[in-house]
Design a protein that fits this description.
Layout lengths: L2 H16 L2 E11 L6 H12 L8 E7 L2 E4 L5 E3 L15 E5 L3 E12 L1
Parallel strand pairs: 1-2
Antiparallel strand pairs: 1-6, 3-4, 3-5
Helix pairs in contact: 1-2
Length: 114
């Protein structure tokens, strides 16, 4: 369950960034190949932040599908499995366009400390 360690890293980054101010919301972009289970991430966030300065902070996650671009037939394929194969022509020579992201997109903090 790597989601708990992910939450720990996110919380640390947000707390450092906030400089003592209240953190209201954190927006993330997580790619399919990061293998983060949405329900487990939400539960881990609650476990990690309960009783802390982040206990009321909302975690908004946008999950990014894994998409490849086929060099052979010039089409994009959204993958359902971790096999980098074009759904159109079956070619395996493809470039990963998305799916490996892990980004804290924004951290919303209160105007004043306290």
């Amino acid at each position: 369950m790597h989601e708990l360690s992910i939450c720990s890293a996110i919380a640390g980054t947000a707390t450092d960034h906030a400089g003592g101010r209240r953190v209201d919301r954190i927006r993330l972009r997580i790619g399919h190949f990061r293998q983060v289970v949405p329900e487990t991430l939400a539960h881990s966030w609650t476990i990690h932040t309960t009783g802390t300065s982040l206990s009321n902070c909302k975690l908004d996650v946008t999950y990014i599908p894994a998409v490849i671009h086929c060099e052979e037939c010039d089409t994009d394929t959204t993958l359902d499995s971790p096999i980098l194969r074009c759904n159109q022509c079956g070619e395996i020579r493809a470039n990963l366009i998305s799916g490996e992201e892990f980004l804290i997109e924004s951290i919303d903090v209160a105007e004043e400390v306290g």
